[in-house]
């Protein structure tokens, strides 16, 4: 049995790719100093998120980046033997996707395109159409991008594909339509934490949840990065501040312990779900 240190980042990222790369490099360095073998960075860490979810302006969209752009070689070089998940706006011909890539210094391990597009995101992005897990040096991982985790089927599909760790990359703001005086009273703040814990507990997997901080346009991002164990218990968190949530655990052992008596995936009855 081997324990692994896992880090989830809370940080702000904007349109300046050079600044974003510097911040990514700093977070990778901080995660390495903390002994982390896996670092999950937020959604839109390269180029920032949309500035307005209700009336997105095409002139202000994040820069679209091709998957073979040299920027990923720079991140891979910084990652070295660390597994790093990072979000960006993917360019595929004339189409744009809210996307994530998981890589090490040896290259790309897995990719994901956000499937569930909230509010007016459909104006800026096309939707992805699949969830798939992939093997990494720290275990089998699947990725979700913010609103994906609202839907139980998303994480469940990854768990059934063997994912031990679900990396949730977010640019998740406080409520836009019903702002609360305190972040602790905010509806989206409560839901963000609820979904992280529920997706971990119902699938008996580890959830590593990153998020942006700061503000963009009229939005305030929540932070609240965390590592959640397979029982739905929060092992480490940043609260609303920028920084790293770092937890050490034997992933395979913790999952086996959680499933020892009640194994949710083994006890599914798909034929009854109409």
From TrEMBL:
InterPro entries xref list: Aliph_Amidase/BUP, C-N_Hydrolase, C-N_Hydrolase_sf
Keyword Transferase (UniProt): no
Molecular function GO labels: hydrolase activity, acting on carbon-nitrogen (but not peptide) bonds, in linear amides
Pfam families: CN_hydrolase
Matches recorded under Gene3D superfamilies: Carbon-nitrogen hydrolase (3.60.110.10)
Annotated ranges, domain CN hydrolase: 4-251
Coiled-coil stretches noted in the UniProt entry, renumbered to this chain: none
Keyword entries, A-Z: Hydrolase
Protein name: Putative amidohydrolase
Presence of keyword 4Fe-4S: no
Source organism of the structure: Paractinoplanes brasiliensis
């Amino acid at each position: 049995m081997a324990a692994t240190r896992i880090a989830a980042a809370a940080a702000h990222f904007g349109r300046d790719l050079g600044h974003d790369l510097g911040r990514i490099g700093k977070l990778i360095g901080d995660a390495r100093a903390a002994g982390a073998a896996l670092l999950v960075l937020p959604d839109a860490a390269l180029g920032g998120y949309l500035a307005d979810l209700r009336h997105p302006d095409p002139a202000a969209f994040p820069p679209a980046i091709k998957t073979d752009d040299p920027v990923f070689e720079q991140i891979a070089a910084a990652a070295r033997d660390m597994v790093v998940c990072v979000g960006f706006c993917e360019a595929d011909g004339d189409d744009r996707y809210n996307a994530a890539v998981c890589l090490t210094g040896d290259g790309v391990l897995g990719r994901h395109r956000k499937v569930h597009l909230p509010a007016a995101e459909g104006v800026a992005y096309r939707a992805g159409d699949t969830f798939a897990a992939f093997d990494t040096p720290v275990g089998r991982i699947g990725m979700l991008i913010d609103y994906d985790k609202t839907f139980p089927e998303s994480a469940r599909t990854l768990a059934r594909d063997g994912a031990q760790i679900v990396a949730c990359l977010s640019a998740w703001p406080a409520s836009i339509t019903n702002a609360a005086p305190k972040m602790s009273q905010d509806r989206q703040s409560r839901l963000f934490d609820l979904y992280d814990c529920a997706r971990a507990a119902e699938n008996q997997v580890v959830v590593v949840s990153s998020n942006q901080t700061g503000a963009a346009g009229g939005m305030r991002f929540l932070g609240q990065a965390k590592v959640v164990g397979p029982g739905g218990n929060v092992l480490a968190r940043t609260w609303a501040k920028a920084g790293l949530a770092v937890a050490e655990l034997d992933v395979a052992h913790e999952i086996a312990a959680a499933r020892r008596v009640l194994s949710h995936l083994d006890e599914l009855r798909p034929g009854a779900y109409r």
